[in-house]
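Minutes, project check-in

Agenda point 3 was the complex the collaborators sent over. CS summarized: two entities, 741 residues total, and the question is how they sit relative to each other. Sequences were read into the notes so everyone works from the same version.
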Amino acid sequence: MLLHVENLQATVADKAVLKGLNLQLKAGEVHAIMGPNGAGKSSFASVLAGREDYAVTGGAALLNGIDLLDMEAEERAQAGLFLAFQYPVEIPGVSNKLFLQTALNSIRAAQGLPELDMFEFSQLVQEKMKMLGMRQEFLERAVNVGFSGGEKKRNDMLQMALLEPKLCILDETDSGLDIDALKAVAQGVNAMRSPERSFVLVTHYQRLLEYVAPDVVHILYQGRIVKSGGMELIAQIEELGYDALAAA
Amino acid sequence: MQTQVEIVDLLGAKATYKEGFFTTTAVETFARGLNEGVVRAISKKKNEPQWMLDFRLKAFAHWQTLSEPHWGKTIYAPLDYQDYSYYSAPQCGSCSNEACASAGAVPIEPEIDPEVAKAFAALGINLGDDGGETEMAVDAIFDSVSVSTTKSRVLLEKHGVIFCSFSEAVQRHPELVQQYLGTVVPHHDNFFACLNAAVASDGTFVYIPKGITCPVPLSTYFRINEAKTGQFERTILIADEGSSVSYIEGCSAPVRDTYQLHAAVVEVIVHADAEVKYSTVQNWYPGDDNCEGGILNFVTKRGVCKGARSKLSWTQAETGSAITWKYPSVILEGDDSVGEFYSVALTNRRQQADTGTKMIHIGKRTKSTIISKGISAGKSENVYRGLVKVLPCADGARNFTQCDSMLIGKQCGAHTFPYLEIQNATAQVEHEATTSRIGEDQLFYCAQRGIREEDAISMIVNGFCKEVFQKLPLEFAVEAEKLLAISLEGSVG
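CS then shared the predicted structure for the full assembly.
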């Protein structure tokens, strides 16, 4: 099992947001987690990634059998967990190039690999940018500063492609994107699908799922996974709505 | 991943001041206290001519009429000027100070106390004089005196460049010192400049002759060693017509539990078509978390662009001192002259910095650029205070000011006081300012990409300062980046 989540409970500002969440994810699978506003979708992504505001009050989360909850956020990243943000953060003054190189070398160092020098790094990043259809000037711009919503998400995809994580969590990464940007995100995910890599697509809408076909669809409702199934679940959500589906 | 509050605590927790060692050597230190007798004694010690003693006495008389300035956004109890010693010098090994004095001159290359040489070596400053021209030339100042000036002879013989201690210049080049001393910062300028004029211990003297490009960067390294000792060096730098020079200052001091006073004066004179680049990397002891000790850095630095098309550029990276009070300024007298000020001021723990610049436009089409980056962490206060003044005669003057502040944590402060006095309608003056905070969101974003918190902070801070660091001489830019990283160390446990 790549990701094993059992009875996970968490609070933020003393409010319970995850109330016994269970999820099993095998290597190579793509899972979609859908749910209404306030169901705990983003909380789940944040807890897995190790955001400080969230307090885990019970349960377990293992990545390849290793306890995630014991690790600092950067250690989780170094262990192969990647979070594509709903709102990627701006870092003025730091070029994308420096940021990407620092991130990649931090992760390589943690894995006992030698650091890449400027030339090796440039070559690698060019390859990945070509794959995602991104322009050269991207590298010289400050991280996410003055980027459009679509550019920010594309930038997250570039980071994902470069860092080659084992588990990619996309936190509502499709929200607020126009169709071209949505396709770009989908293209990034599809290009990176492999038997060793898994994806969790946290989403409010089904639009992204038209471009990235998930293996399993889960419905998250009031802090728990209440239903799991295939693509047919999406049609049921359309038809019945979350409340009725959760009650059924 | 720490929460913001913890970051603040941790930033304050560890004093990692690696220059904080103390050197034990035979020293001659005057008893504490200040009166006319002390001023005369300093002058006598240095075997100074009458005009220099007169300058000191005039300044001392005036100083007694002044009161300590407290208008800066810095808080400190009034200092007891009788509780400091105004002269401290390591005794030379081969000759006694008395002998030097009676010989009527300070020797060019006195024997250096091996302990002092060791102290400088520990700071990475090599005092060996190989006569080569590749490295930098260094004037090393230990407490009140210059202990060694490297490459002096070869610079003078081959290029006519005078690079020596201030005391030596008074002996050997009195006409030049007399011509320029007090012309940019007069003896009555301000409280600390006035005190400096009275008790000036040593300093560096530089003269670049007409048309000469100084072949090596010149540098002065200031080391305060003795406790309860003030350092009052006076630096005069003259770039004659068409010459150019890059001058660099470095500073450090041992960890002491009481305030040490550093009240320096720097005067720079740039003649027509000459260019001076003056860089400072200041890493004085900043004091501990409880406001105990540290250097009070009350410095007056001013340059005048006297001739047409002259240029003076101040670049500073300030990370140390308990309190910094310093406004390197340029008086743009010559037509088409250019003044620049590039500054990074980092404050952490309980440091206070009130720093900035003054650009006084007098000549026509004079141009000034101010880029100031202030970083506040811990419980520190960081102030930019700058004046841009355009006189009625300065037709077509231009100024661009950019003033950015960055906050780390929630208990520090950043303040900006720009003063603009524009008296000519043809002047163009621009002022831009930003304030940002290294937020938890940014640190989490970096952590999620595998970057440790202290690396993230250092990456973000260095990105923020890049524009200024690019202006520093290369080896110093590297030094400054490292210094920032060290000063921010302890941001994680």
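Noted in discussion: The first helix of chain A runs from residue 41 to 49.
Follow-up: revisit at the next meeting once the mutant set is ready.
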